[in-house]
Amino acid sequence: MKILNSKTADKVVRPERIIQFGEGNFLRAFVDWIISNMNEKTDFNSSVVVVQPIEKGMVDALNAQDCLYHVNLQGLNNGEVVNSFRMIDVISRAMNPYSHFNDFIALAEQPEMRFVISNTTEAGINFDPSCKLDDAPASSYPGKLTQLLYHRFKHFNGDVSKGLIIFPCELIFLNGHKLKETIYQYIDLWNLGQEFKKWFETACGVYATLVDRIVPGFPRKEIDNIKAQLDYDDNLVVQGEAFHLWVIEAPESVADEFPANKAGLNVLFVPSEEPYHERKVTLLNGPHTVLSPVAFLSGVNIVRDACQHEVIGKYIHRVMFDELMETLNLPKDELVKFAEAVLERFNNPFVDHQVTSIMLNSFPKYATRDLPGVKEYLKRKGRLPEGLVLGLAAILVYYKGGKRSDGTDIVPNDAPEIMTLLTKLWNEGSVENLVKTVLATDSIWGEDLNAVPGLTERVSYYINCIENKGMLQTVKELID
After folding, report:
1. Residue 97 and which of 181, 305, 405, 460 are 20 to 30 A apart at CA?
2. pTM for this structure?
3. Are 190 and 153 in contact (CB under 8 A)?
4. 155 touches 105 (CB < 8 A)
């Protein structure tokens, strides 16, 4: 078995045009994989300099392998099983700005540098007023980025052709908007001046993005077999699902410079990210939230098995295609294609996704993922979406706790005040009072859901059905 480095594997030298804040599994299995495909299939011809956003990280491990590693994609693609490996060679070097600050700031002086990409976790885009311009480096990611941009502005004397295109990939809705606002806060805090602010506004672009690929990460259990298969001692293998989607809220001029869509990749440049964010939350997260209690209380433990179940599978299809899809505004063919891809992801033969892992904090999840669909469906159709209503009833029954019919423990997990309330209400024994009280709890919903026409009655009806007939029979009667 060979050591993995540039002596034992081909590594093409390309111009450094991308600064990447973050060296974790997601960026390496998503963005760097995309760039690898772009280099192969277009004339993009770019390499990435990785900057470790916090003091402790993985850059030493990356540099030990000359920043080479493999991505292992697993899943289904148009019904075909995928289990592929790709060596990623796009990272030229990786640096720690806490120990090599001068090397970090010198990146701003490279004339060919054009893009900044980041994934510094949801907490990474934050304003820390304790950061100073002369920190080496600033502690926050936006602070580091502002330092870099300001140095570039000064080094090139405000040349508007030396601006940077910035793609944040943090899992925050309208992440680009938040990052831009935070940079403005640092410009004001550090008194960087109107000329720099104008250069930032006119020469640079900060674009909101939506990223989507499940990345389990390092395949610890399978790594010995994978190394033997690759014939490389690769300690940075990262596994991801076959599906990928990157939605970038940017004009066509940006797409021309970053031609991922020309490489046959699922990268969309759109006027607004919002409908795609809504689509993902509605058609992926929404079904997850309701299928989980329905499946579990029917004796099904794995998402894939739920999709393939004779009864639960039809319920999932109804919720996705007949109810939630009807509440969205994108073209129907786009929505159907996306929903079919979601079902393939749910059916991934390589991932045993436990439905109980989705059940954590089900009420806030239902409030953000499914409740908007309930209201919009009612508005458009004049009736409630029965599958989504049953899902809410199933959550309430799941939160009763106790044991499933086969003896499996039911262990709900939510905020203590929610758990205390549900325990008290179930102990009192009145389903009608339970439903009315929960639907009226402002701290969960931000409103009194008893005002939604028919909702209180239908949730109570389904709880009584589940309690008297069992979950599976209740679902059968709904889909028949």
Report:
1. 181
2. 0.87
3. no
4. no
Answer yes or no: are the C-beta atoms of 363 and 414 closer than 8 Å: yes
362/358 Cα distance (integer angstroms) = 8
Cα–Cα distance list, 2 to 169, 214, 218, 233, 238 (Å) = 34, 29, 19, 6, 18
State pLDDT tens for residues 7-16. 999 999 999 9
Using CA atoms, how far apart are residues 6 and 131, in angstroms rounded to an integer? 38
For 363, the token pair is 């009420």
**CA 17 to chain CA centroid, nearest Å:** 25
Edge-first strand order for the sheet with 209-212 is 209-212, 245-249, 267-270
Count of beta carbons in the 10 Å neighbourhood of residue 120: 23
Q: Could you give the CA distance from residue 327 to residue 282 in angstroms, rounded to a whole number?
A: 9
Q: For residue 43, what pLDDT is reported?
A: 96
3-state secondary structure at position 107? helix
| Structure tokens belonging to residue 379 | 């508005």
The pLDDT tens digits of the residues spanning 186-214 come to 999 999 999 999 999 999 999 999 999 99
pLDDT-derived band at 123, boundaries 50, 70, 90: confident
